[in-house]
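SEVERITY: medium
COMPONENT: batch folding queue
REPORTER: lab tech (J.R.)

DESCRIPTION
The queue accepted two submissions in a row. Attaching both inputs and their returned structure tokens so the on-call engineer can compare them side by side.

ATTACHMENT 1
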Amino acid sequence: MRVSKANLAAAVANEGCAGVIATVGLGNFEHAPGSEFVELNRVALQDEIRKTRQMTNGIIGANVMVALSNYESLVKTCVEEKVDIIISGAGLPLQLPAYTAETDIKLVPMVSSARSLKLICRKWMKDFNRCPDAVVIEGGKAGGHLGYTLEQLEKNNPTLDEILADVLQLMQQLPTPFPVIVAGGIFTGEEMAHYLKLGASGVQMATRFVCTEECDVDMKFKQAYLDAGPEDTTLIKSPVGMPGRVINNAFVKKINAGQTIPFKCKYRCLKSCNPAVAPYCIAEVLAKAAEGKLDEAFAFAGSNAWRCNEIVSVKSLIQKIMQEYENAERCEPAKSAQ
């Protein structure tokens, strides 16, 4: 939330990659009436897309979570502003094509299993006569909300290699196969080479880009990554109804110990959240995290956050990743990244 905005998305797009804007909670709605929630976020997303367009002629994507109560509004804003790609997960985006009809926007569901992708393809073909333009499959090492049970994550099962194999097998059964993009725990160009050799068409990387000069979060958020050790990422139960991976701190220890953080919900921003029983407001916590108020919040992070050891420009980071990839291509096939 508020981690990948115009500055980061434009910088990534300017290097020939797809720059993705995270659409959750962009509006400064903390002190606004609840009735203004949808409109404030619509305008904030509109402004963020336009800012990005002013800084790049590259490919711009938007990540819109199905779990959001204003999901339809955000998707329609993306359509109006003519983003190039909509990535949609945290639930099955079964109705996404209905909101983007007669546009050239590429639709990319994000899933954690071949089974979920099969359901989406079946629904889209039946109701809209189309398949996704690509798919992002996210493994259990990713940061933020994850499409697995806590038990699966604690056992590190299934691996991203296994999910990729299942999805590629599904592709053989589809009338029109499409690109498969892997995400979750990919940190180096060597790991990118590994997945491309296994049959993926591309990778999505997030954690490593937090520690860039252009990333939109407060420096204290980035410093949490720089200070983290290999054992400092942990899992939480989120009011979203999914586990989440975060960097451990005093606040995380409080909520994992069962403490509640009182709040008044004016917005009901998540379809699945019940404010009457939720131990804390996830939107409020993530907004504070982006502002660097980590005594009252936590930083979402992938399992490789501890490997970030410096703040660099997006340009130099992408150059480094590509050099790692080229070095790996010249060597023997990489061992499993999992």
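ATTACHMENT 2
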Amino acid sequence: MNYEAMLAGLPDAVIAVDSDARVVFWNAAAEEMIARSARRAVGRTLKDLFPFEDSLIRRLRETLATGESRSESETAVETTDNRRVPVSLVTAPLFGRDGSVEGAVAVLRDLSRLQQLEGEVRRGETLAAAGRMAVGLAHEIRNPLGAIRGAVQLLQRELRADSSLTEYTRVLLTEVDRVNRIIEQLLDLARPVQVRRVPLNLHQLFERVALLQEEAARERGITIVRRYDPSLPPILGDEDRLVQVFHNLVRNAIESMKHGGHVLLSSRVSMNPLYGRVDSGSGQRIMVEAVVADEGTGIPTGLRSRIFDPFFTTKESGMGLGLAVCHRIVEEHDGAIQVDSVDGKGTTVTCFLPIAR
């Protein structure tokens, strides 16, 4: 049996070193995780590959020195493109025929998707709690709001057209309507999302949203740029719900740019295995990536993990419900949503959506 071929095909990263901490084995999963090919890794020392003293180097050295296994349930490994990938780590000694330690092997499991799923569970619990609160409050708030609106309308009829009080009644009606819209947004978190899936042309959805936002973009000196994959297959989704998602994302992109720039709408078939959903019996599913990217202010690093939480917003005004609703709609499509942002340089939001079969 070819044990080296077995290790090479494992989904976890496997790295083996000799007694001098020089790499002797580096499987395909390690190439993908650390963004370095086996050809550029094998034969080099750990110190050459990892300039910083991280958990991987420390645990392998301890194993080489003591001949004992080491493990960490959660740590991180630095990649060549300066990302920190959350991993679990286990090291084990490799013994020679005489019982001496001839090397060590490390197995690293990528925890990115697991952490994302845990975050989605927590977010789902928060959304459910917010929904229950919204249902309870909506009835209690809407009844007095309806009475206030009716009373203001009666008062408006009694006033002369040139009365100075007319402006106040208009303000009251506007604010009552605004509170009603907030209640509607809250109820969106509580209502079951009815998704009517049909084959859709993603580019037509993008064009529909671009047309709606064209005037707002022009006023801010913003150009909407398209970069579409002409061979993109149809996606499977609910037209109105996905337009709601893209409308929200494009509007956010435009509002983040105060001094002009570009908003990019792009599409492609996804080659990211992290977001390809797995169906029982059919293996990995290929997804479509729908991307909205801006050149705006970006999202500060410390706030990125909270952007899909209900009632959280980085805007000066707003309830912070738009992205929470977008996240829920994409999830109901058996998809995923990812945000990448550089503070001060812009934000890229990618929706991973299923292909129509």
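NOTES FROM REPORTER
The mean pLDDT is 83.
No errors were logged for either attachment.
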